[in-house]
């Protein structure tokens, strides 16, 4: 029998990704309902994609349709409550990024999961392109040697009108700025390849946009392997690019794209000592792009059929949230942050802004972050 799916939120992301990607899975799934607080949006999405039922409330949808899977294409502030309601109703969840507004919210959702499902997973589709999958295989086997140096850049451009949408770049509704809402995709791709991180040093500022949060962030991240990585996130960059580059002992592997890649966006450069035949075998033979949600949805459906936890859920989905929290804590406190600090009781476990969102905004806007780093350096 097909997996019965409900799509919550019928805006651009649902229409551009969730609904067509589900349709691409054919008879493996059946889209039984859509929901949106705007009745006209729900109605038009249902008509466009041939969905029988449409709702303005999730509780009624869950009680009436009893879906197996709920996908969330709503603003971030709505993720936690909707995910918990779906899990409690026995439905698996696939939610858009950022997963939640805080680590505390993430863990609260996880507490509603059950053994063998339902589970909540999160949309990070760049993990699922064939080149990223192939690279992870090489890393797991040690075929490229140790990772040494990496770079992770999300340099995008959003004009002032972008921030007129009320929930964007607000601590209470998006959780943060480009670190949470934009760069988190490339950061998750990086972490899925390099694994566990140990500590981070970051700076942030608001240089050109009227927001509560940062419009630029930079960080240096240390991994358990010893590798060092620079991370940059910007919404002020006219030449937009998304890039992950990793220098291993035996190769440099790099992807540069914007909102999605295929194999042509990747380069595999061998070190001088590597023979041509070995290097020629590194890239994947199939070409699965990361431009749609379909590969991740196919994985999600397969996990549901097998009754196993999907990727990008549990600890695997939490890792990038920890890194984001570590970056905000480092930038706002002016010191390096260890991953093991980010536990219940820490202010940045409960909120990316720490104890006082207004103070966080003031510090980012005033440039006192740079001053605090300078003072810390002067103190030794």
How would you describe what is shown here?
The structure is a single chain. By secondary structure, this protein is an alpha/beta fold. The model is unreliable at 368-380 (pLDDT under 50). It has helices spanning 12-23, 39-49, 58-65, 79-88, 103-110, 130-141, 178-181, 184-194, 276-280, 294-306, 314-333, 347-350, 357-366, 368-379, and strands spanning 3-8, 29-35, 53-55, 69-72, 92-95, 120-122, 147-157, 197-205, 216-223, 228-234, 236-248, 251-257, 266-270, 337-338. It has 14 helices and 14 strands. It holds the Pfam family GFO_IDH_MocA. This is Gfo/Idh/MocA family oxidoreductase.
Structural Rg:
21 Å
Q: Main sheet, how many strands, which sense, barrel?
A: 8 strands, mixed
Low-confidence segments, ≥5 residues, pLDDT <50? Answer: 368-380
Helical fraction: 25-40%
CATH superfamily of the largest domain: Dihydrodipicolinate Reductase, domain 2
How would you spell out the order of helices and strands? EHEHEHEHEHEHEHHEEEEEEHHHEHHH
Molecular shape: globular
The strand order across the widest sheet is: 13-12-11-7-10-9-8-14
Average pLDDT across residues? 95
What's the level 1 CATH class of the largest domain? Alpha Beta
According to DSSP, the number of beta strands is 14
Keywords: NAD
Domain GFO/IDH/MocA-like oxidoreductase: 134-249
Protein name: Gfo/Idh/MocA family oxidoreductase
Pfam families: GFO_IDH_MocA, GFO_IDH_MocA_C3
């Amino acid at each position: 029998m097909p997996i019965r799916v409900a799509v919550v939120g019928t805006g651009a992301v649902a229409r551009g990704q969730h609904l067509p990607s589900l349709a691409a899975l054919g008879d493996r799934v059946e889209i039984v309902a859509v929901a949106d607080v705007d009745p006209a949006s729900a109605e038009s999405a249902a008509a466009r994609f041939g969905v029988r039922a449409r709702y303005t409330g999730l509780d009624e949808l869950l009680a009436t349709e009893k879906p197996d899977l709920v996908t969330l294409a709503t603003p971030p502030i709505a993720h936690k409550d909707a995910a918990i309601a779906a899990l409690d109703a026995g439905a698996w969840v696939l939610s858009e990024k950022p997963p939640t507004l805080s680590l505390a919210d993430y863990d609260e959702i996880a507490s509603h999961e059950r053994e063998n499902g339902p589970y909540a997973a999160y949309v990070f589709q760049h993990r699922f392109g064939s080149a990223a999958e192939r690279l992870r295989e090489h890393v797991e086997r040690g075929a490229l040697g140790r990772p040494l140096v990496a770079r992770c850049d999300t340099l995008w451009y959003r004009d002032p009108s972008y921030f007129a949408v009320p929930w964007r770049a607000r601590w209470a509704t998006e959780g943060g700025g480009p670190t949470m809402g934009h760069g988190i995709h490339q950061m998750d791709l990086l972490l899925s390849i390099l694994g566990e991180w140990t500590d981070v040093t970051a700076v942030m500022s608001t240089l050109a946009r009227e927001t509560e949060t940062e419009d630029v962030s930079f960080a240096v991240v240390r991994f358990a392997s010893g590798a060092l990585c620079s991370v940059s996130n910007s919404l002020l960059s006219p030449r937009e690019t998304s890039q992950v580059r990793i220098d291993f002992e035996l190769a440099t592997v790099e992807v540069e794209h914007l909102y999605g890649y295929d194999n042509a966006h990747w380069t595999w450069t061998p070190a001088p000592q590597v023979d041509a035949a070995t290097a020629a075998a590194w890239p994947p033979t199939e070409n699965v792009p990361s431009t749609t949600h379909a590969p991740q949805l196919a994985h999600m459906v397969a996990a549901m059929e097998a009754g196993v936890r999907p990727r990008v859920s549990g600890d695997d989905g939490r890792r990038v949230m920890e890194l984001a929290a570590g970056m905000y804590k480092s930038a706002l406190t002016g010191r390096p942050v260890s991953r093991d600090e980010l536990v219940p009781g820490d202010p940045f476990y409960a909120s990316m802004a720490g104890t006082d969102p207004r103070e966080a905004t003031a510090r980012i806007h005033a440039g006192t972050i740079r001053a605090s780093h300078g003072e810390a350096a002067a103190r030794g």
